[in-house]
Amino acid sequence: MIRTCNLQHFRDILLKLRSPSTLRLQRVSSDSTSDSDEDEGPRFPGAKTNWTEKLKFRHSDDIKPLPVYRVMDNYGKVIDPEQEPKLDKDMLLKMYKTMTLLRQMDLILYDSQRQGRISFYMTSHGEEATHIGSAAAVNDKDLVFGQYRETGVLMWRGFSLLQFVNQCFGNKRDQGKGKQMPVHYGSKELHFVTISSPLATQLPQAVGAAYAYKRAKNGLCVITYFGEGAASEGDAHAALNFSATLRCPIIFFCRNNGYAISTPSKEQYCGDAIGGRGPAYGIPTIRVDGNDVLAVYNATEAARSLSLKDGGGPVLIEAMTYRLGHHSTSDDSTAYRPAEEIQNWESPSWGHPIARMNQYLVGKGLWDEAMEEKWRKDAKQQIIQALLAGEKVTKLDWKEMFTDVYHDLPVDLQKQMESMEDHLKKYGEHYPLKNFISAP
Prior knowledge:
The protein has helices at residues 2-17, 89-114, 128-137, 151-157, 161-169, 202-216, 234-246, 277-280, 293-308, 339-346, 353-363, 369-392, 411-427; strands at 68-69, 143-145, 192-193, 222-227, 250-256, 259-260, 263-264, 285-289, 315-320.
């Protein structure tokens, strides 16, 4: 009898000390079994869920796909007036002019690569709204980690045409001193981390920066851009998970343009694209029309507010868009997609981002054909002048390949530099050394 009482007393103590992560003991009476505790759901620490007695596997078709948020239809008409952002004339015109200036610069620099004037280039044709809509919605001091197709974000923040050109030429005025591939921009002054070529490496780096911002309590967030192809990298999954568990103030901005170079999205993933992964990581997520600059603006503005609210946390934006140009000057996209597909997306009836914004401004009486013609001529002239000016700037001394990385030049690099020096003494006449001068 005493032994029975002690066991009951022990049970009572355990029940009082139990925690949500501890398996609960069930009281059992002599005449019936109580299921009141089971009605509260499973107590396993690994997930929040419910009981079921139906043997059923969950399939992607069982879950409704995320809808695509938009503000305008394909012809620039606002569908729901309450969703139209309250932006003034100057802001709207800056958005449009930056989109079209980017388009013009891409056309001219792409042609300059074909002429052999620069070695490499990547355009942003068809994705201009993702750049400008998001850049306009965040604080200019928010830190940006780009992939390699976010030129418009830097342009919005004030990176000059000459700075773009200098970087592509790798001349002595290039802030990267010619050590980066063309279009791999960076600007400490504009809070834009220098782009690196390997896919998705920027994502965990961005999370680390966001965590530092959280600890600093500086009221700023981080925004990082990537394509749906980069989302297949392990770094993407690690970044999403770490940001969620650490509650970092960061916006993950995925440009889903349908192709990872030559691989179409249907061969990249199953399930509900990239946006479908957000809720699985516990991240608030929205899918937006990436060709609607106003929708991108609204989504990014709301995402920034959400990322900083009540301690902050990550937000995922999946911008649905289409890459009109080749992946780069090293690519011929007609080898893996029909020309008709590209022509369809270039058509205003398919919601081309620049045509749609143009029609929106015309409808509001803020733009007309005369203004369009004048602006395009001015923009083209500005870019050509920058191109010609950048082309005349000499490059740094070739020894910069070896210096300015280590404080003390390692022995192996010292030997390589000496070998290069000997080579040029013998065969220097075969190289355009007149285009290189000693660093100032």
